[in-house]
Each structure stands twice: as structure tokens, then as C-alpha cells.
Amino acid sequence: MVRWCAGALALLPIVLSGFALSRVSAAPPAERDVKAGQALYVRYCAVCHGEGGHGDGASAAGFATKPADLTDGRLMNTLPDEFLVNIILGGGAAEGLSSGMPPFRGHLNEAQARQVIAYLRGLARPPFRPEMARPPVSAPNAPPQPIFFSHLIHAGSFQIACQYCHADARRSDYAGLPSVERCMGCHKIIGAQDNPEIAKIHDYWRRGEPIPWVRVFKVPEFTYFPHKPHVRAGLACQTCHGPIERMRVVGAETGRTLANDLMNLVGLKPAPPLLTMGWCVQCHREQNAARGTHAPLDCITCHH
Ligand code: HEC
Ligand code: HEC
Ligand code: HEC
Ligand code: HEC
Ligand code: HEC
Ligand code: HEC
Q: Which ligand neighbours the alpha carbon of 222 most closely?
């Protein structure tokens, strides 16, 4: 009975996410919505994004950051509906993009924004399939950061490789956070003139200061966690950090929790929370048994 309960608890998130997915991959949008979306698009969007959606509308030339090419499936297809709704109603600034993209909340309601999206999905090349745009993950405990940096845009939509920015992961203990210079490599030009979030990068760069990012994943000083052997052992970043490319802002529930301690106390065996000793040791046991790795179980390797 107790075991069954624990099993059911463990299954809960899967059932919930299955629910979210089944809603997303529901029936294709009705022809009526697509038609309505097209009319709204022509009325409100074409002036900047162009009749065909290529970002070449009559007003496009006046913008430092050009209106997006909404037909480019490589960029658009991974962006979830929720993200697009937010941009359309709240403007580019709602997701850290340029405010050249104005908010339409005064003109469109959410249902109408979704109709426009239904229309835009049909323009995408390569073609859009619902399973490409998985719902965004709102991670718990995401701290406020000095700059609104979105993994959903960089690692999701633009598919910049994790290790392009976290370049030390495969060769040292630390994954590392990108330097201001790394950001400037792209942002000397991209968004430089009309995006206040990107203007902040330029300010740090001019002052020669690093960006004071607030850490999310951190083990206590008395423990030793090296990235290199884990990455070399073929563990994906997401195994430990979750689906980062679907997060607008990074956060995580780490360390011991009261709920977890209570479940242990009454004999349920919940999965150990991220970054606790139980979490490290459980994976080491499983990996050693399943793949014959030599992940350490002795105290001194993890505690110098
Ligand atoms: C006044 C000009 C203007 C109008 C009107 C406008 N946009 Fe935009 N839009 C922009 C600009 C400029 C950007 C680029 C923002 C950036 O990349 O920082 C943009 C970006 C976007 C993006 C983000 C794409 C991405 O790559 O993430 C979406 C989605 C979008 N627009 C949809 C719409 C829709 C739908 C409408 C009509 C309801 C619309 N826009 C009307 C100027 C406009
Ligand atoms: C390989 C190129 C590249 C690098 C490196 C890069 N970016 Fe970006 N970034 C982009 C692109 C492309 C966009 C989307 C621009 C648009 O549509 O307006 C973007 C958008 C942004 C935006 C606005 C949207 C958002 O994410 O909220 C911010 C802020 C930003 N980047 C910050 C940073 C910071 C900080 C760094 C360094 C840690 C960085 N970028 C590194 C390419 C890059
Ligand atoms: C364009 C650069 C860029 C790319 C690409 C990128 N990241 Fe990041 N990453 C950052 C920046 C900047 C931060 C610090 C701000 C924040 O936490 O969002 C960060 C933070 C993180 C953190 C939290 C670090 C901590 O403990 O505070 C993790 C984990 C992470 N990234 C993993 C990934 C993974 C996995 C990928 C690929 C799916 C990825 N990143 C792609 C720039 C990038
Ligand atoms: C086996 C689990 C695991 C894997 C796999 C893993 N990480 Fe980490 N990551 C951690 C832990 C634990 C920390 C905290 C380390 C610390 O405090 O010293 C961390 C910290 C980080 C940080 C914060 C900065 C730093 O260097 O400590 C970033 C960024 C990060 N990881 C990115 C990545 C990326 C990118 C990948 C894939 C290339 C990856 N991680 C793979 C467990 C993992
Ligand atoms: C695979 C790595 C790993 C191994 C092996 C390991 N530990 Fe830990 N240990 C950790 C991490 C990570 C933490 C910090 C997170 C936490 O407190 O759960 C920790 C925390 C601790 C703490 C502090 C707990 C607290 O409540 O603050 C003690 C004491 C400890 N370990 C003792 C040991 C002893 C004794 C052994 C050998 C039997 C051992 N550890 C083996 C990773 C490890
Ligand atoms: C998702 C599984 C997983 C998690 C979680 C994990 N590890 Fe590991 N770890 C491994 C594997 C697999 C290896 C062995 C790699 C090999 O044998 O090549 C390893 C190896 C190590 C090593 C030995 C490195 C070396 O140079 O031989 C240390 C130290 C270590 N892990 C510490 C930790 C600590 C501390 C944590 C928790 C904060 C942790 N690991 C969490 C899978 C994991």
C-alpha cells in the first residue's frame, strides 16, 4: 500500500504533463479561426511584418531591430503558443524583445491572438507540427536576474548550443557562465539600438564589469561536483537541470524540503530532491549498476 502511494506520487507529474501535452496536440485549428486570424493579421500586423509575413511591411525599414520573419519555421516552430500570445498582447518587451513590437492588448483579446497564431502557424516553412512547440516550463524559485535573459529564445528558438555559452562544462569542474564579451559577440549589433535589456549588456561592457548573475544550482562548499566527468559520461545537461531550453527564466527546487523529509519520515520513499546527497548517490548507484560506470560512493571523493 505504502509503495503504491509512493509510485502514484512519482507518477503525478507525468500524468499532469501528459495532460498539458494532450491539450496542445489537440485537433488542428478550425478553418474559421484561421480565416479570422488572417483578417486580423492583415489589419494589425501586415504594416510591419508584411502581407506574406516575411518581416518586410511598409513600416519595416524604420526599425533598428527588424520585424521578425514570421514564416521562418526554424525560429517560430519551437516557440510555444503561450509565448506568442504573450508577445502579441504584451509587446516584445514582455519577453525581453525590442519594444518595436507593440502590445496589442487594447485591440485584441486572447482568443483573437490565438486566431492570429493559428493563421501564422500555417505560413511556417519548414511546416509547423504541434509537437514541435512544447509548452514552456515555469521553473520554481527563479531569482530576479540583472538582465532578462531568456533560454527559451537563445537555446530554444535560436538553438544556440548549451556549450557555446557554458563552454567549460566538458573540460573543467565548472560549466561556467558566459562572459560579457561572449554576449557582445552577437549583441554588439543584435538589439543594440532599441532593446533596453541589451543596452544593459553594453553598459556592463563599457564599465568592464562582469554581469552579476544570481546562481540557481549550487552545492555547499564542503562538496565536490565536477562537470567534466558527468558530461563525458554522456549525461545530457537536462538530466540534472531540467528542460532549460523551454524556460524563459531559470529556476529549480533544490536541496532538502520539509515535504520530502516528512514523506521519508512516514516511510514513503520519494525521489530525493535535486542537489541533495541522496540525489547524487542514487544516480551513482543506478548508473554503476546499469552501465558499469565507476561513479564514487565513498565519502572522500565528494567531500574533500
Ligand atoms: C509597428 C510594427 C509592428 C507591428 C504592427 C507588429 N509587429 Fe510584431 N514585431 C515587430 C518587431 C520590430 C519585432 C522584432 C522584435 C525583436 O526581435 O526584438 C516583432 C516581433 C514579433 C514576434 C516575435 C518573433 C520571434 O522571433 O520571437 C512576433 C510573434 C510578432 N512580432 C507577431 C506580431 C503580430 C501577430 C502582429 C499583429 C497582431 C505584430 N507582430 C505586429 C514589429 C511589429
Ligand atoms: C550566438 C549569438 C548570441 C549570443 C552569444 C547571445 N545572444 Fe542574446 N540574442 C541573440 C538573438 C539572435 C536574439 C533574438 C533577437 C531578436 O529577435 O530581437 C537574442 C536576444 C536577446 C535578448 C532579448 C530577448 C531575451 O532573451 O530576453 C536579450 C536580453 C539577450 N539576447 C541577452 C543576451 C546575453 C545577456 C547574452 C550573453 C550571456 C547573450 N544574449 C548572448 C543572439 C545571441
Ligand atoms: C546565449 C548563451 C546561453 C546559452 C545558449 C545557454 N545558456 Fe544557460 N545561461 C546563460 C546565462 C547568461 C545564464 C545566467 C542567467 C540565468 O540564470 O538565466 C545561464 C544560466 C544557466 C543555468 C543556471 C546556472 C545557475 O546555477 O545559476 C543552467 C543550469 C544553464 N544555463 C543551462 C543551460 C543549458 C542546459 C543550455 C542548453 C539547452 C543553456 N544553458 C544554453 C547563457 C546561456
Ligand atoms: C550530473 C548532473 C549534472 C549534469 C549532467 C550537468 N550539470 Fe550543471 N550543475 C550540476 C550541479 C550539481 C551544479 C552545481 C555545482 C556547484 O555548485 O559547484 C551545476 C551547476 C551548473 C551551472 C552553474 C555554474 C557552474 O559552473 O557551476 C551551469 C551554468 C550549469 N551547471 C550548466 C550545465 C550544462 C550546460 C550542462 C551540460 C553540458 C550541465 N550543466 C550538466 C549538475 C549537473
Ligand atoms: C556522490 C557524492 C557524495 C557522496 C559519495 C557522499 N556525499 Fe555527503 N553530501 C553530498 C552532497 C552534494 C551534500 C550536500 C547536499 C545535502 O546536504 O544533501 C552532502 C552532504 C553531506 C553532509 C551534510 C548533511 C547535512 O544535513 O547538512 C554530511 C554530514 C555528509 N554529506 C556526509 C557524508 C558521508 C559520511 C559520506 C560517506 C558515507 C558521504 N557524505 C558521501 C554528496 C556526497
Ligand atoms: C544523473 C546521474 C548523476 C547525478 C545526479 C550525479 N552524478 Fe556524479 N557521476 C555520475 C556518473 C555516471 C559518474 C561516473 C563517470 C565515469 O565513470 O566516467 C559520476 C562521477 C562522479 C564523480 C567522480 C569524478 C571522477 O573524476 O572520477 C564525482 C566526484 C561525482 N560524480 C560527484 C557527484 C556529486 C557531488 C553529485 C551531486 C551533487 C553527483 N555526482 C550527481 C552520474 C551522476
A: 5
Sign of the torsion formed by the C-alpha atoms of 223, 229, 231 and 235: negative
Average pLDDT estimate for 248-268: 91
Residue 279 CA: which ligand 6 atom is closest?
5
Name which of 18-27, 82-91, 100-109, 123-132 the model is least confident about: 18-27
Query: CA-CA distance, 147 to 150, in Å (whole number)?
Result: 9
Phi, psi of 117 (to 5 degrees): -65, -40
Average pLDDT, the chain: 90
Domain ranges of the chain: 29-132
155 lines ligand 1 (CB under 6 A): no
Its pTM stands at: 0.90
Query: Nearest ligand to the C-alpha of residue 117?
Result: 1
In angstroms, the Cα distances linking 245 to 10, 78, 176, 230 are: 24, 10, 17, 20
Q: What is the percentage of the chain residues whose pLDDT exceeds 70?
A: 91
| Non-local CB neighbours of 90 within 8 Å, separated by 6+ positions | 103, 105
Assigned superfamily of 29-132 = Cytochrome c-like domain (1.10.760.10)
